[in-house]
Amino acid sequence: MIATVTKNQKPKIATRRRLIEATARLFSLHGYNGLTMRSVAKEANANLAAANYHFGSKDALVLEMLRERIQPINQRRLQLLEIYKKNQPKEPLSVFQIFRSLIQPIGEEISKSASSRCSLAQLVARTFTEPTKFIERMHHRFFSQIAEIYYRELSLIYPNAPAKEVYWHLHLAVSSMLGALAQHRRLEDFTKGLCTEDQVDEMIDRLIHFVSQGFTHGLRNSTQS
Amino acid sequence: MIATVTKNQKPKIATRRRLIEATARLFSLHGYNGLTMRSVAKEANANLAAANYHFGSKDALVLEMLRERIQPINQRRLQLLEIYKKNQPKEPLSVFQIFRSLIQPIGEEISKSASSRCSLAQLVARTFTEPTKFIERMHHRFFSQIAEIYYRELSLIYPNAPAKEVYWHLHLAVSSMLGALAQHRRLEDFTKGLCTEDQVDEMIDRLIHFVSQGFTHGLRNSTQS
DNA sequence: AGTTTTTTCAAACAAGCGTTTTAAATGTTC
DNA sequence: GAACATTTAAAACGCTTGTTTGAAAAAACT
Question: For residues A131 and A137, what is the distance between their CA atoms, to the nearest angstrom?
């Protein structure tokens, strides 16, 4: 039942790859419920049964696709945090640096996948709006630990601030980030063409500033050390 | 086919009401695709055919429900803007007041509907993530004009700022608002119980501050008059 | 070579979807 | 009470969904 490659590790990985890529495209366009096995098969030029053969179920297919997309972003986040820390071993990170490390990697991945730029933004954002149970599991698996890391970094800057206060604004910052990613496709329409959807770098840059400022100035009892 | 009440204006409005209420609950929980006519009928203790009889189609049912929810909020927004203006006819509105008028009405409606507090937040937020075409129509019908009004108000405060700049940050502010509404249900989980989901007023209050600060300090060339 | 494993393919499965259609039941008006 | 419009009720209509099946094709291995 399960595909186990014994020796030659690359017998015909093409189909499996195409299925995942197609899933990513269609998921970001239409969400979980809007994605059908038949549409995936068609988009990937594969047979309907292929997806079930390679992944077992629709859930497993989408989950694998998400894991593949999200994990590199999270690794890059931690990497950026480490880089910033090494560059200034004496002083603690700034709020701006922290949110830069959180948001920048998404921008990098969006820019990397040249075709259909906003699809990854849509994908990440949709991950937080889809109500399905398996997405809930997803969050606990991929986002809960990284959220904890960022909470710790921020509370290092505001050692006297109540934990509740830091959590509140981290929550708002993350929500803003996700909202901005989700709404990005509407940018051009919303601004009557003044801002175009392909200005991903500018969006990311502005978003980092926006969130940092909101966090810094919105924080009550902000007894910064 | 279409229900037209001739004389006695309230023949049996109960079913129609229950259908809309059920639609609101299920829509905010499961989105458009996750909402089925059968689940609506069951939730409303009505027959499967009742919804189609009263509204004609699933689209029309959901659209009517959304209209009923969104229009009072938009009216209240404009009303708040007018009130603030009357209270200070000489000086222009502040950024804080503008975003207060934008966000506060949602909090009021959430608090009003005592049962299932976060459902309206979910509902409004979902309205912006659902990809369905009829929701796109929805936006142009109910949100495009009010977005224009808020752009004008903000550009009154920053008369020298480029339109693009104001649009950019209004977009970010609105995205943050929607993100915060969408993520509200995750607040308790995200903050490990420190912040509870029923603290709607606090969330709204913090959100207004967060967004105002992000807008004010994030704005480049912010030559405030 | 031959054998076995892996992959593809077309077809069918049961279940759920929005909608329509019938009829009966209920309420309203004269 | 009769005639009417309005509302329920149950069943069925096509259609799409995720998944399974069984045989054919391809690839890998000895």
Answer: 11
Q: Check A128 against B183: CB less than 8 A apart.
A: yes
Nearest to B197, CA basis, from B178, B175, B180: B180
Tokens of B113: 């509907």
**What's chain A look like in SS3?**
CCCCCCCCCCCCHHHHHHHHHHHHHHHHHHHHHHCCHHHHHHHCCCCHHHHHHHHCCHHHHHHHHHHHHHHHHHHHHHHHHHHHHHHCCCCCCCHHHHHHHHHHHHHHHHHHCCCCCCHHHHHHHHCCCCCCHHHHHHHHHHCHHHHHHHHHHHHHHCCCCCHHHHHHHHHHHHHHHHHHHHHHHHHHHHCCCCCCCCCHHHHHHHHHHHHHHHHHHHCCCCCCC
Neighbours of B224 (CB within 10 A): 11
- Rounded to whole angstroms, how far apart are CA atoms A29 and B5? 42
Q: Do B176 and A171 touch (CB under 8 A)?
A: no
Cβ of A168 within 8 Å of Cβ of B195? The answer is yes
CA dihedral B21, B23, B27, B33 (to 10 degrees): 180
Cα A65 to Cα A62, A92, A119, A131, A222, distances in angstroms: 5, 36, 13, 18, 40
Q: Quick one: CA torsion of B135, B137, B141, B143, rounded to 10 degrees?
A: 50
By Cβ distance, the residue of B30, B168, B217 closest to A131 is B30
Predicted structure pTM score = 0.86
- Rounded to the nearest 10 degrees, how much is the dihedral formed by the CA atoms of B111, B115, B117, B121? -100
pLDDT tens digit sequence for A27-83: 888 888 889 999 999 999 999 999 999 999 999 999 999 899 999 999 999 999 999
* pLDDT tens column, B84-128: 999 999 999 999 999 999 999 999 988 887 555 556 777 777 777
pLDDT tens, position by position, B159-182: 999 999 999 999 999 999 999 998
Q: How far apart are CA B169 and CA B161, in angstroms?
A: 11
Q: Which nucleotides of D are covered by protein (CB under 7 A)?
A: 5-12, 16-22, 27-29
